């Protein structure tokens, strides 16, 4: 950030009074501009023991597999966002369940929140952001082609919970970048 969105004057990085971290501060109007992590929300839709996965038609990680997920928007809950992403990416309606995983993706300044979801019927198709969509048995999950470490983590926790017969909320932090798609 070079200029203040409030008044258009230059900003500088400094620690504002009463704060402990450097922030973009306008030298003219003194507005403080925070740069906070973005929230990405998704779900692991399940139908009769199989999970719905989407092969990405967009970057980053074009061609790799994920569950439906996307950036939060103002005016919606995390559950609404997870359901909307499932519709947009897989043209599927889901019932959002309990939280499954929260992953702090430090290098990308993101927090990924994943919910469990029930797919009431096996009706789905590739949306505009997916090359293909399918239901997969746990043994069929394309582990080597999973798009992101946070997706890998959530899928592993989903499988662990399923084998234990109980649902837990799992947390982790990831601070590594993936190689470019290809």
Word description of this protein:
With 182 residues, the chain is an alpha+beta fold. It folds into two domains: 1-35, Single Sheet (Ubiquitin Ligase Nedd4, Chain: W), CATH 2.20.70; 38-174, Nucleoside Triphosphate Pyrophosphohydrolase. 16% of the residues lie in helices and 35% in strands. The chain is built from two helices and eleven strands; from the N terminus they run E-E-E-E-E-E-E-H-E-E-E-H-E. Strands 4, 5, 6, 7, 8, 9, 10 and 11 form an eight-stranded mixed β-sheet that branches. A three-stranded antiparallel β-sheet has the order 1-2-3, with no helix packed on it. The longest helix has 16 residues, at 149-164. The two termini are 32 Å apart. The model has no long low-confidence stretch (mean pLDDT 95).
């Amino acid at each position: 950030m070079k200029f203040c969105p409030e008044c258009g004057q230059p900003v500088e990085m400094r620690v504002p009074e009463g704060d402990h971290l450097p922030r973009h501060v306008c030298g003219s109007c003194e507005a403080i501009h925070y740069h906070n992590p973005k929230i990405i929300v998704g779900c692991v839709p399940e139908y009769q023991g199989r999970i719905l996965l989407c092969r990405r038609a967009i970057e980053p990680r074009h061609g790799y597999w994920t569950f439906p997920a996307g950036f939060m928007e103002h005016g919606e809950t995390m559950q609404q966002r997870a359901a909307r992403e499932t519709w947009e990416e897989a043209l599927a309606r889901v019932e959002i369940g309990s939280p499954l995983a929260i992953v702090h993706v430090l290098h990308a300044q993101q927090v990924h929140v994943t919910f469990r979801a029930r797919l009431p019927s096996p009706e789905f198709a590739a949306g505009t952001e997916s090359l293909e969509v399918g239901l997969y048995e746990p043994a069929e999950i394309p582990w080597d082609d999973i798009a992101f470490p946070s997706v890998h983590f959530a899928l592993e926790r989903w499988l662990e919970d399923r084998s234990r017969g109980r649902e837990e909320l799992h947390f982790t932090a990831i601070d590594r970048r993936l190689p470019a798609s290809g």
